[in-house]
Amino acid sequence: MPNFCAAPNCTRKSTQSDLAFFRFPRDPERCRIWVENCRRADLEAKTADQLNKHYRLCAKHFDPAMVCKTSPYRTVLKDTAIPTIFDLTSHLKNPYTRHRKQIKELTDEDIQRIKERRLASAEQTIKKEDLSNMVDNEPQLSADEKEYRDYLRSLFEILFMLAKQAIPLTTGRVSEEELKSNNFQAVIDYCMNAGDEALRKRFEVTAVNSEYLSTAQLNQLLDVCENTVREEMLMEVRESRFYSLVTGDLVEFANSKHLPVFLRFVNQQNVLREEFVDFLPFVDGDEAALVESLEALLVDRWGLSMEDCRGQAHKATGTSTTKMKAVAVLLMEKYPLALHMPCSHLALNIHLANNLPFPNVQIVMENLRRITSFFKTPHTQDELEKAISIQFQKNEEKRNALKKMCSSGWTEQHNIFDVLLDILPSLLLCMDSIRDNAGRKFSSSVTADAYSIGESIADFEVIVTIVILKNVLTFTRAFGRNLQGETLDVFSAASSLTAVLYSLNEVNDNIDVYHEFWYSEAVSLAALMQIPVSVPRLFLRKQRAADLGEIQAETYFKEYVTVPVIRGIMQEVEDMFCDNNLRALKCLSLVPAVMGHMKFNTTEENFAEVYSGDLPNPDTLPAELHCWRIKWKHRGKEVRLPTTIHETLQLPDVKFFPNVDAFLKVLSTMPVLKVEKGTGDAATERLQAYVGSVPAKHLNKSLAMLHINTHVKHDLDVMVDKYCRLYPEDDPEAEAEDVGDDVIVTKVI
């Protein structure tokens, strides 16, 4: 779409000229001066952000000395540039012509104010020139200082190379002598042998057997790298203003647990990003303390505002799930717009099961995580397929279907419990076969894991729990699949929640009938696997100690498994999709494809009240939404309706609907919505890959940060400047936070 010049009596546009066009500045004071000089009265009421987004001035209105051509394809303004060249009289020659860009008539007060501003500007220019002369007169870097900066630059390059390739700083050796030879020093040696003069000169002036680079210095280098890369991402978050907070599963390194923290936001190119920004130390104990730590990290360290947080999602497992649920509740009490939603990276049924605080359910979920890890070992998948072939040798169709499902990440799918129940006999047969290890293909650790998993799943309580989870979560499976689908699917899911809750309530009201069928299914499966029906030993012991008599197995599993699971799932669904969450999801009807599906009979304004404070002009929202519907309802036949928020935000004319534009950007940050492939969805996957490939004792917080964010642009010279400013070479070594293994690079001849 062409850019038009906002200056009065100027009709230039970008399609008719090679001239550069410049946005109004974001800085409110500079922007006000531009508007004053333009003499456009209609622009005075607009904010700096609105002017920056929607208005341009062509290069003809600037002094040529203010315009810099940095390349044949790029022209920029100096930071102090102000437009001063305008035609404010030519319209007087034809007074009957209607002019869209009305010129403001200056009053005496306006003239006096402009004179005062110009005088102040002239004084400021003189001061800047004096300061510039002082800078020019400063001494240049000495040869030693240049060599030192080149040396630092080489070290930063090496650290980024190690991070990109997920190479730990040290190997598995821990003796004092062997620490003299580690991955970091090996790369330094290689670079020196390859001709890096900066490293070699530094090496030559270092005394024999002395520290070439101490652990404290290395930690300082890593700290500068990490903070510089993080600041690049945080600048984008601050520019976009609104964001959502996403946390991952706990990662253990340096003898403590850490909570991975991600931020989801829409950048200046209107692309949804989800970026990993840091690890937060996770201390077991008070949830309020963890909330305070999160707030301190986001607000005090990163300069963000919790008032701008529009969503939160916490991907937790095991005992941490209860704590993270409490954290979400506390955050929503303080910041009601930080809506707690499921994470788009995790199937809803897995999320619901993870959040159930019952020991038998947590045992099943822990077994699933162990099974996922176990079948990454070579040859184990082959054994599972053999067991499936044996178990279903008379049913070729079922056999082939199960083999296909088990080879495609079934432990992350929405139908995880259906597949688990189908392959459970084969899974137990596979574990027994690997434990026997007849062909000696597996190590002792693999056979030990197979024995442990086999013993765990060969338990009647586990079988009953799996059967109950499979049957209860059948009612939420389609709902969860839609939540991870296209925008229209998510909108449909929000509309179908009432039906999901109705089905779950119907099961709860008729729990005796449903439990009888489900218990019978569990007994049949246990008989097939030759597992006896029994009440858990621990419960029986407590019953006998209290002299309460015996309890029937069916009654026990109804009271302690079926009823808690069905009620727990109902509560989780109601909490996760409260009224505010549903209102937000129903606002997805702003997307044209959803609008078309609803025959353009949508009422977003009824649900938009919660976000009225986020809109530039909330009073005009109803009229703007009406125009938005009319635009798409009466489109040409060849015009295709955008199907996602991302596609809609990329439209060139969405900027003419500022409320819709802002609304879509806020909605886009909701954690439940999937991130478009290739536009920032890989941070979680890269973290999992790094944690999986590097041994826990060699995990390094800073290297993990750099590895996950290798796509973020970084300037080595900026890092060198920052390091020299924070840690001058002449100063004694400052204490640095220990972020990993002790690494001492020593000169040895």
TrEMBL record:
Upper lineage: Eukaryota, Metazoa, Chordata, Craniata, Vertebrata
Keyword vocabulary terms for this entry: DNA-binding, Metal-binding, Zinc, Zinc-finger
Database matches in InterPro entries: IFN-induced_PKR_regulator, THAP_Znf
Domain THAP-type: residue ranges: 1-86
Membrane-traversing stretches: none
UniProt-listed PROSITE patterns: ZF_THAP
Coiled coil: none
Name of the featured protein: THAP domain containing 12b
GO molecular function: DNA binding; zinc ion binding
Keyword Zinc: yes
SMART domains: DM3, THAP
Species of origin: Xiphophorus maculatus
Keyword Metal-binding in record: yes
